[in-house]
């Protein structure tokens, strides 16, 4: 049972404090919900005459009026608030509590997908509904556990967030044979390359990018014959499992003194990492650092930093310094300056860790390049030549939230927490520790912002991943009271107050809610017909020459189109990367192969030559059209179109049709 005890966070606010906080946040959400509903009303003029608009706006208005009345009423004895502290008992208490907890989930699903539907797809109306449903679930948890309103509500919020996030992770687990996005199924092809000899009959080079991600995705190929849906399931397990493992590693390190703090902190940290989201292969580094680094065990710490940095070196360029930075963060939080009382002795470990980590990451990258089998290594540094799109820091068609507003929303509750906790208590940590934490956080923040505006990025906050991890670690240490001060008094910092805790919870839960999309349905008969058509067409052309799969290469990986030799070059991910980074030698070879009609057929999406001025990833699309689609359509023509999957089969033209007036070569 979750019976409240003394915790490191304020889970026992007064009745008045709890309800005032709830009503203030509910009113704030109602205001945003009214604004977005009115925006949608203007977009769909007929909605004004519908009962839904009247009902929704009426409920929001009632929330505002009733909330304002309750917040402004003066009642020194607080009888109203105290009456809300019900504590029912009896044989039906647990049954009613369970019903309140469980029934809320289908209600939320009904509101989003049926009642709101396409009429009110905006975010804040649904968040407002979820906020009130969490209160109903909190009442159910109180009946089940006899815990306080604060504990029950916090647990209800986290439970909703975890359910939403799990749903989002498992949603792509389907047996749909074609890719769910422009490169969704390509990940499984790259995961298969570690076993290319047994799958394709030839030894293929490994991926140039995200090597460690594909190492993890290669694991299902240890079992021969698994279908595509099994690999999709494995990726969902990686997302949820490794994020949960990171939360476990954090709790194991912090060792909170009570179950409530453990429960709240682990659930919050789990959801916080998904705000980027922090990719699961980066979390391997985080887990190694959390479990391995120890100020009291220098050799174990060095081994952990070397192992995590080597993994990071095989992953992404901007992750090279991350393991050492996270290790130094733990050092600054756990090691008082007063214990060494010497500047040089105190900074010697961070300097050693940073140097060793960076060198090891470079060695990891060199090692992977050597074993990858790629003769042309220019692709490993292609991202350094990509243009910067500064506007993606701000709201755009690619990211309606914008990178800077989004990361500020993520950061604000944490900075509010730090301000509350540290006010008047800065001297409890030596200025060198503050300076180190601030400098490292700023480095990761700036690095994330730069990577986010490189062409191909900026669609979400995943390039802010290292900053998000460090920010979460700092917050977790202060919330759990595990920051070592310069004195022996570990209670030298203020406990987290209830309003700040709710703000910390609602933001990651809101991010999880935003990922709840309609279930994936497809016409199974049409998909099987299209796959059969593609299979017959490709196998026919493969008898006269090579067939290049730019898209849908996973159909060869999983044997859905058998007996077709694989062509290693020009898969959609590297082809797009070389197009946006303008890798001319790579593109010239592609153009020459097209001109020479090297391929008997090419499988790709429908191509067009239109120049877009707005839309999602518009610059990337235009560069693809200019540097790939134009040359493809010049030398090849579509002969088969699969309308349900947007796939075409292209064959060589007898006479090239190149339109120089559209694009210059």
List keywords for this structure.
four-stranded mixed β-sheet; 60% helix; 665 residues; disordered N terminus
Structural summary, described in words:
This protein has 665 residues and is mostly helical. It contains 25 helices and four strands. Among the domains are: 15-170, no CATH class; 524-652. A four-stranded mixed sheet has the order 1-2-4-3. α11 packs antiparallel against α19 (465-479), α14 runs parallel beside α19 and α17 runs antiparallel to α20. The longest helix has 30 residues, at 343-372. The protein is globular. Mean pLDDT is 89; it is low at 1-7 and 660-665.
Biggest beta sheet summary:
4 strands, mixed
Total strand count, please?
4
Strand content: under 5%
Helix content: 55-70%
Largest sheet, order of strands side by side? 1-2-4-3
Question: End-to-end span in angstroms?
Answer: 70 Å
The residue ranges in which pLDDT falls below 50 over 5 or more consecutive positions are: 1-7, 660-665
Mean pLDDT: 89
Q: Work out the radius of gyration.
A: 28 Å
Structural class: mainly alpha
The shape, in one word, is: globular
- Name the helix and strand elements from N-terminus to C-terminus, one letter apiece: HHHHHHHHHHHHHHHHHHHHHEHHHEHEE
- How many helices does DSSP assign? 25
